[in-house]
């Protein structure tokens, strides 16, 4: 039996890579993870009808305001998406994000 030594950093990297792989490979896993974080801001969620892997549209309730929208941009940046455009749709602002790279 061969012994393998791992540092704490190695173990953290392996766990991080495994979680990211699970989130991106499972049906809706990445979007579900993003939705969970967006939901903490308030009435914010991915508009799955208008989204695909390269472009995600996020519906943000207008009552959230500018600070909430900045938090949404930060969350999307964390997941590898950059702000592209926004438009109105009734009580929601539809913010579009493009995948970086």
Helical coverage, percent range: 40-55%
Number of strands: 4
What is the element string, with H for helices and E for strands? HHEEHEE
Note the overall shape: elongated
- As laid out across the biggest beta sheet, the strand order is 1-2-4-3
- CA(first)-CA(last) distance: 42 Å
Low-confidence stretches: none
- Number of DSSP helices? 3
What proportion of the residues form beta strands (DSSP E)? 25-35%
Biggest sheet overview: 4 strands, antiparallel
Number of domains: 1
* Class by alpha and beta content: alpha+beta
Q: Could you report the average pLDDT, rounded to the nearest whole number?
A: 86
Rg, nearest Å? 17 Å
What topology does this entry show?
Layout (H helix, E strand, L loop, with lengths): L7 H18 L3 H11 L4 E3 L8 E7 L3 H14 L2 E9 L2 E8 L2
Antiparallel strand pairs: 1-2, 2-4, 3-4
What features would you describe in this structure?
- The structure is a single chain.
- This protein has 101 residues and is of the alpha+beta class.
- It has one domain (8-99).
- It has three helices and four strands, in the order ααββαββ.
- It has helices at residues 8-25, 29-39, 65-78; strands at 44-46, 55-61, 81-89, 92-99.
- The chain has a four-stranded antiparallel sheet, with helices on one face.
- A hairpin with a 2-residue loop joins strand 3 and strand 4 (92-99).
- Helix 1 packs across helix 2 (29-39).
- It is elongated.
- The termini are far apart.
- The model has no long low-confidence stretch (mean pLDDT 86).
């Amino acid at each position: 039996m061969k012994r393998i030594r791992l540092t704490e950093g190695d173990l953290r990297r392996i766990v991080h890579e495994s979680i990211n792989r699970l989130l991106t490979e499972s049906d809706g896993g990445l979007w579900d993870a993003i939705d969970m974080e967006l939901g903490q801001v308030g009435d914010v969620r991915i508009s799955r009808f208008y989204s695909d892997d390269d472009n995600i549209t996020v519906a943000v309730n207008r009552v959230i305001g500018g600070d909430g929208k900045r938090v949404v941009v930060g969350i999307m940046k964390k997941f590898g998406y950059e702000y592209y455009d926004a438009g109105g749709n009734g009580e929601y602002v539809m913010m579009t994000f493009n995948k970086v790279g």
